[in-house]
Amino acid sequence: MSEPSSQVEIREIPIGDLAVGSELNARFESIHERGWLRHGIRRWLGLLSPASKHPVVVLGAWDLALAGSASLCGAIVGVWGDTPVRRFDDLLPAADGLEPELAQVPDTRADGPLAQVPDTRAHTPEARPSGGFWHFVAVTKAPDTEHRVANPLLEAALDFVQSQQGAAQARTLSPIGGLDRVWATLGDGQQHGPPAAFVRQCLESLCTADGKGHFPITWLHPARGATLEAVLHDSRRDERRSCGITLRFAYDLDPKVRAENAAAWAAFLAARGEAVRTGQAREAGIEDRYFASAPLPPCFRDTDWG
Known about the structure:
Elements: E1 8-12, H1 23-30, H2 42-45, E2 56-63, E3 72-81, E4 133-141, H3 150-163, E5 169-175, H4 179-186, H5 196-205, E6 206-207, H6 217-220, E7 227-232, E8 246-251, H7 255-277, E9 282-283, E10 290-291, H8 298-301
Parallel strand pairs: 4-5
Antiparallel strand pairs: 1-2, 2-3, 3-4, 5-8, 6-10, 7-8, 9-10
């Protein structure tokens, strides 16, 4: 689908090729082991099966200098839903009345039911639904590769959505890692969790001396042209670092719009940095951070702050 360099090729991985017990399946799981599996991502790895009721697409980055499964050096996964979800776990089936984040994924052992490789026709390109929303899980990169694959994989994912029939859209979600420490330091101590106004202030204004956002997630998607569609309170009660809050980002499929958004985001960061340098910002009282105001970029203009 895309060729970011002469050394790496981006192409789709058929779901059937990720069958449990295969070398490619083992390689695919290995590139997710650093941290991701500890954060519960093994749950959505259970969706990567012909048995999944949700259409799934897997795009892989392949090192052309290597052979076989070892050449897989990165991946991005998209799961389709007819509406935007509040968390990736909403795409998992609830079990025995449990919350979705506590539900068990299908048995993927080599002798389990998924090893039988059910009918894969529902996951063929021809059978994919038109319209709807493709939710992309974070890009993962093999620890033994030096190739930079994040941007090429994201661009390939957006190209994939644009190639689908109907008005399909692209979304991704992320918790606000580190919000718990900010709330513990700056909160009023009266609320069970940070109110919407506090979260908005932190996302719009809390920054470093050069204007960069305090939260790592704000270094990623807005810089690539995404807009913050919604702040989803109480969406992840199992995610303490984000006080249970998930951010949902939307990606426009027009590369020109994404480039304009990214440029506006860079100008926004520069304006916040200038506010700090000229004394127009105030110290936040946490880790040499500041609250600096600047005209809002497109990233924040239509946000549902909850």
